[in-house]
Design a protein that fits this description.
With 138 residues, the protein is α+β, with helices and mostly antiparallel strands. It folds into two domains: 3-41, no CATH class; 44-128. The protein is built from four helices and five strands, in the order βββββαααα. It has helices at residues 52-65, 73-86, 91-103, 106-128, and strands at residues 3-7, 12-15, 18-21, 27-31, 37-39. A three-stranded antiparallel β-sheet has the order 3-2-5, with no helix packed on it. Strands 1-4 form a two-stranded antiparallel ribbon. α1 runs antiparallel to α4 (106-128). The longest helix has 23 residues, at 106-128. The protein is globular. It starts with a strand and ends in a 10-residue tail after the last helix.
Length: 138
């Protein structure tokens, strides 16, 4: 069964090693085959991987797009260890991502890594918010 993708004017899509840019009108593509496919909105550039969990997402994305995904495993697992040590609440997300990586389902791992990014945002927001001081008894 073919994957059907509707592209907005000017939208980009990665198919394998190729970047395809849509022209000035909406386009519907029917894609068959086994090449990795990413919409522009799902692509993270290396310079945008500026938080620990964004680095994890970026490495999983690299695995998905690579012909030899194992070349990213050492960097990925080192980053995962660092994140888990700093924020143990990420462990459940990371375990799911790891299982998907081991199964070779890298696109699914990317989807789970997006959930990890949302969790990271929550953690960062919690740190930014001032903690309420306990009321002292008089």
């Amino acid at each position: 069964m073919a994957l059907i993708i509707d592209l907005k004017p000017g939208e980009k899509i990665l198919i394998g090693d190729a970047v395809i840019t849509n022209d000035q009108q909406r386009t519907r593509l029917h894609i068959s085959g086994d090449a990795p496919i990413l919409r522009e909105k799902d692509v993270m550039k290396e310079e945008d991987a500026n938080t620990p969990c964004k680095k994890i997402y970026f490495l999983v994305q690299c695995m998905y797009l690579a012909r030899a995904p194992r070349i990213y495993f050492d960097k990925y697992f080192a980053q995962v260890k660092e994140v888990q040590n700093a924020a143990p609440t990420t462990t459940l997300f990371i375990m799911k991502i790891n299982d998907m990586i081991i199964e070779g389902t890298f696109y699914k791992a990317m989807k789970e890594a997006r959930e990890l990014l949302l969790h990271e945002e929550e953690l960062i927001e919690n740190v930014k918010q001032p903690k309420a001081r306990p009321v002292e008894a008089v």
